[in-house]
Amino acid sequence: MTVRPAPDLPRRPDGELPAPRPRETRLRALDGLRLVAALMVAAYHYGGRGGEVTGSWGASAQHQFPTLHTYFSYGCLGVQVFFVISGFVICMSGWGRPLKSFFASRAARLLPAYWAAVLLVTAVFALPMVAQKALSPSDVMVNMTMLQMPLGVDRVLGVCWTLWAEVRFYALFALCVVLPGASRRRVIMFCAGWTLAAAITQTAHQPLLDTVFMPEYASFFIGGVGLYLVHRDRRDVYAWGIVVVSFLIGQHYAVRSLWNVSDPHAFAHRTSLGIVLVVAFGFLAVAAIALGWLSWANWRWLTVAGALTYPFYLVHEHLGWVVIKVLHRDLGLPSAVTFALTIASMLTLAWLLNRFVEERLGPRLRTALNRTL
């Protein structure tokens, strides 16, 4: 057997060799965690809240799920779990990548399924037999830009407020880390600077600063970035410090916004301990993946689950309302059966969107953006 000599590594200006970058492999457990977070949000939208889903069930979801509705109400924290995952993934995908490639990959990942979901939900809501309000053509066109939130336009997809938070995170990370070139020191400074800026923003009461630094959600993204640093070097004290501080701040914001035991009109009463435990689950699950403790979860179907998560997340809420009405009110199926079949139908639709939209348009859009920028 012939042994090939290792290629020379470029040296830093001080003559030292750079720290070796860990070999990236597919973290399939992270794909599975994505789907878990999406199913948490779906449980919240179908059985853990009031609002428009009540019309689909014909009565409050509290009556449909007398015991489970309280547990389902914690499902909204799946969004915070998503943000931790996003911080990890964006740091991993942006490391060593030029800005053009980073932008092209993000656009190709987000836009095709999003465009298809906006058009699909608009078309379904426009049907005479669907008792849901469709937006005007003008508002739908603005929604195609993904900028409806800052422009004050009604949303086609209720979940797209989280995409607006994601886009702002991408912009901050691209400008502060990807553009100048990712390094451990730069990422640490980015996390520290954003944490401080978010804390100052909380006291400044300036809408512009709130929009840019997102104090309510920043710590979850930052915690995910810190966990990627842990993935690169589990002995990195600074990385662990970022993770711990982010968790402590994140649970504070989650409890402050979601704790409602004192509200007599609340759909379901969440406890502060329950909220903290769900937030801790998100951080601990990503930490276990970062440390390699879940490397045994390497089944190929988890990659499929990860691929279905984004389109499922986009369409499950509004189209789920339609399916619930048909199955429960029109066909008379029991609540539990309706719930399970609605989840299954949305996963099937997500597979179709992934197969015929994302897999076909995503690579073409990425290639076009990489070529023209």
Commentary on this structure:
The protein is mainly alpha-helical. The chain is 70% helix and 0% strand. The chain has 16 helices and no strands. The termini are far apart. 42% of the residues are buried.
- How many helical elements? 16
The secondary-structure class comes to mainly alpha
Strand content: under 5%
Cα-atom Rg, whole angstroms?
A: 22 Å
If you average the pLDDT, what whole number results?
91
Give the N-to-C terminal Cα separation.
45 Å
Overall shape: it is globular
Helicity range: 55-70%
Major sheet, described briefly? none
Segments where pLDDT lies below 50 for 5+ residues? 1-23
Q: Would you report the number of β strands?
A: 0
What is the string of helix and strand elements? HHHHHHHHHHHHHHHH
Gist?
This protein is mainly alpha-helical. Helices cover 70% and strands 0% of the residues.
